[in-house]
Amino acid sequence: MQSIQIYDSTLRDGAQGEGISFSLEDKIKVVRKLDELGISYIEAGNPTSNPKDLEFFQIAKTLSLHTAKLCAFGSTKRCDTAPETDSGLLALLEAETPVVTIFGKCSLLHVAAILGVTPEENRRMIWDSIHYLKACGREVIFDAEHFFDGCIEDEDYAFSCIQTAADAGADAVVLCDTNGGSFFDRIESLTRKAVKLISVPVGIHTHNDTDMAVANTVAAVLAGATHVQGCMNGFGERCGNANLCSIIPNLQIKRGLSCIPEENLSLLTGTSRYISELANVIPDAHAPYVGSSAFAHKGGMHVDGVLKNSKTFEHIDPSRVGNDRRFLISEVSGRSNLLSLIHAYHPNATKSSPETQRILDRLKQLEYEGYQFEAADASVELIIRKELGMYTPFFELDHFNVMANEPKYNEFSSSAIVKLGVGGQYQLTVAEGHGPVNALDKALRKALETFYPNLKSMRLTDFKVRIIDGSRATEAVTRVLIESTDGTQTWTTVGVSSDILAASWKALVDSIEYKLYQDQNSGKN
């Protein structure tokens, strides 16, 4: 099986995405997680860009990695300095990573407008930088910045730059679609030409400004590229970088190319969600392969087909990438959807079983009252437990009280008091929050964490309110959807009431009880 080198740039290129920031501790965690996944190269940052990256590289020297090589990233030397005195190159060497990645201009526009040097001087900067770093014992990867746009301006010059890099001793030359505007046909043809021209491995680095970064990357690999750069979850500046969570399974499962160890493919979904959690980004539910909706089935005919033969409506087994199949309950779903969920608790149930009918009737009654279960799979599982007599509450509410603080006397606008009991022991807690629901959530979990410490890993990621019957004004029935995560999995619960706090309380309780049941089943409670 042909091998493809996977080069992850989440901690550098990915961190340039709007709203994304990794702490020093986060960066260490990401490195360990990517190494566990089996990534070949991890670009960890630019040691000259900020104090955090500089400190990271000091700590990185002590890391023991199993599969990945750490890369320090920087640019070619300045035109008016010798490589051995260039501060940027010296900083790359001081990082003491086994691999150094440097970028150089391959576009005449950038050579003139950004660097202000002649085309010949730019090529000399590329050659001198690579030759010096190789002489210092580093593996060197050259990122040919703006290569594809440079080919539009002057193809001969762009190719002369990558030839210079190869002649200087680069271990790989990476063709960059820096502006993300190229189409796959040009990517394919120019990559094929580069593979024939230079004697070192050719790589590809694409951005997603035309929503084709993954397709462009695959086109380059089919043209002969053996080194692929990208970011987990497609993080990156502007519209993002090529998404490794799609590229890896596309190449490995669909094309038979080895990107990571085969046994590690099942870690892909967990790694994706773990890194989203560290970046404080809500995972894209509709992301291919790793999204929570990637293998979610709603239509009754689809569910019936999947239950008979999963290949009827699934292009791969979701477990291969560590994901799960989900059957959604809604007005367009049939009994097959519901039966698939019931089987987790009652394997012998059939479509005509009394239990199936009883649960279906209960769900229909709740839908009549305003519930909607399509997205609230966790609440559905709890209803099934209750109807099958397999439900035991984890706590007993004594009372709760929520107060709005107007005018605000500090940064918080609300406070909540919750008193609840577990096994006859009662806990009374008070919490402040940004709004009544936030205060209630904090007070509830604060009380329960005394009895269930594992709830500390849980937090709310989304809160949606829908007024079902607006004609009743302030008496209208309200539906609340709450999405929660523990950093590994994400689930959604629903509550309905004419009182928004009561609706929120129902959804909050379902969310916590679902988490506790999951932990109980896995032996964490």
Based on the model shown, name its key terms:
eight-stranded parallel β-barrel, three-stranded antiparallel sheet, Double Stranded RNA Binding Domain, alpha/beta, 16 strands, single chain, TIM Barrel, 3 domains
Describe the structure.
An eight-stranded parallel barrel has the order 1-2-3-4-5-6-7-8, surrounded by seven helices. Strands 11-12-13 form a three-stranded antiparallel β-sheet. It has a three-stranded antiparallel β-sheet with strand order 14-15-16. The chain starts with a strand and ends with a helix. It has 16 helices and 16 strands. The chain is of the alpha/beta class and 525 residues long. The protein is elongated, with a radius of gyration of 27 Å. It has three domains: 256 residues, TIM Barrel; 89 residues, no CATH class; 126 residues, 2-Layer Sandwich (Double Stranded RNA Binding Domain), CATH 3.30.160.
Briefly say what this structure is.
The protein is 39% helix and 19% strand. The chain has helices at 24-37, 51-60, 87-94, 108-115, 119-135, 147-168, 184-197, 213-222, 244-254, 268-278, 300-308, 335-342, 354-369, 377-387, 436-448, 500-521, and strands at residues 5-8, 41-43, 69-75, 99-105, 139-145, 172-177, 202-206, 227-230, 296-297, 326-327, 396-404, 414-422, 425-433, 459-467, 478-485, 490-497. The mean pLDDT is 90.
